């Protein structure tokens, strides 16, 4: 079957949605584009999405990374940032989050050059930045991979989602990875950080995490 496409452009992202794409085509694209590409790919049973993140998207992603690292330094004995690694289940689905993190399984991942979900665990936390590119379509991929928690940020509100035993995500008021952090507090922190120079927002996150660890 010949792939069909839909182009979705905006100030925030440039996206191309292709349907009727084979698994081999997806894997070949990953190989041909290589590791130093600016396009993120997600694949779910024949549907391929290509997205080129904007500066606004990447800036928000960086701020969220700062928050996770500040919390992890206070509340986790170990962690590994896996960035936008390609996580895939052979023959069915693959996804590249804005960011991803290992905590409990950090020691199992450290030092690896590649991650194979046939033998390696999925990340415990992924971050998706939704300015205009809706990440909800990718939730089914994360569920199939077994990702326990998703943070979804649209530039104004942070939503926290936990994977349920039946294989779907439910929005929750508190983080699973960091129970001290609620959706409301995270949103407030991110709103404060939006108007600060980066050194000051780093101090803000570190101070907040230190106060909650007492």
**Count the helices. How many?**
6
Query: How many strands in all?
Result: 12
Strand order of the largest sheet: 1-2-4-3-7-6
Please mark out the parts with pLDDT under 50 across 5 or more consecutive residues, or reply none: 7-12
At the first level of CATH, what is the class?
Alpha Beta
What portion of the residues fall into strands of 2 or more residues?
Answer: 25-35%
Which radius of gyration do the C-alpha atoms yield? 17 Å
Number of domains: 1
Q: How would you classify the helix and strand content by structural class?
A: alpha+beta
Q: Which percent range fits the helix content?
A: 25-40%
User: How would you sum up the global shape?
Assistant: globular
Which series of helices and strands comes N to C? EEHEEHEEEEHEHEEEHH
Mean pLDDT: 91
| CATH architecture term | Alpha-Beta Complex
